[in-house]
Amino acid sequence: MTTIRREYTSDFSIEQNWQDYSAEEHAIWRLLFERQQRLLVDRACNEFLEGLDSLGVAAEGIPDFRRLSGVLDDATGWRIVAVPGVVPDDVFFAYLARRRFPSTCFIRRRDQLDYLQEPDIFHDICGHVPLLMNPVFADYMQAYGAGGLKALGLGHLQHLARLYWYTVEFGLIATQKGLRIYGSGILSSAGESVYCLEDPRPHRVRFDLRRVMRTRYRIDDFQKVYFVIDDFQQLFDATRPDFAPIYREIAALPDIEPDMLGDADRQFAVERGQKNGLQYDRSPSLGRKRLEDVRQHHNR
Ligand code: PHE
Ligand code: FE
Questions:
Q1: Whole-prediction pTM
Q2: Pocket of ligand 1, candidates 99, 150, 162: which has the most ligand atoms within 8 Å of its Cβ, to mutate?
Q3: What is the C-alpha separation between 142 and 121, in angstroms, rounded?
Q4: Which end of the chain is more exposed for a tag (fewer CB within 10 A), N or C?
Q5: pLDDT digit string (tens) for 185-208?
Q6: What is the mean pLDDT of residues 245-255?
Q7: Average pLDDT in the chain
Q8: What is the CA(217)–ligand 2 centre distance, in A?
Q9: Cβ count near 261 (within 10 Å)
Q10: What separation in angstroms does the CA of 44 have from each of 62, 162, 171, 196?
């Protein structure tokens, strides 16, 4: 068993203590990694696959944050900070605003390969960190952190949390080769990696900032709707305006249910699948707990 030291500092950072991971923990990483590698090669967007490649996370097993931070820092000025689990919203946003990505260190057990309620190191490192190698996405995440601190102050975290959910965690991107995945919650889930692109049931709707901020989301099942961006620059530009007046505008409108379509929605058709009878397991993705916490926080 790994004994990760739990000496909390005021910023919730801990030591990763990479040397303490057991052979079993490295083996679980390799299992998850190889499975996603097969699924994602023609499903994830190029920016993700390139980021993963240049980070050099692969068959080596659980990566050492010291090495990853060095590579990441050289590329985009981001670094990884080890944390014990979900950190408070203000701490989380403050990290992002300073180009620090708080990552968990523990890995799920072998009997939890498909579903875990909270983010683990596989979700955080394999799902989130590769895109931080992309300059535009790296800037988006920093801007999101600053925007999070602002939304907290304005009491509109719920609206901003939906943006995170439907972009950073569950976003799709339209490429010349068809729809591809960039959301980390999907990228770290075997089942949803296939479902989101190939199952005819969920809606795939062109990204619209206000539409996203009004749309509730499921934390206990695959998504009913995915929002599709053209590229990261579009996402960055769409989120550049001051959100304060947008929050006020949206607060006056009703929420949209995840499975509801509106007249203004521009849908994408499902492009593949159904061929040989779609097969995936029904367990939902990871990375849900953080935003569930955000929601509870908001409802208090
Ligand atoms: N422009 C947003 C604001 O004024 C900040 C933000 C940027 C939020 C990018 C999310 C993503 O609040
Ligand atoms: Fe996540």
A1: 0.89
A2: 150
A3: 21
A4: C
A5: 999 999 999 999 999 999 999 999
A6: 97
A7: 90
A8: 15
A9: 12
A10: 21, 22, 11, 11
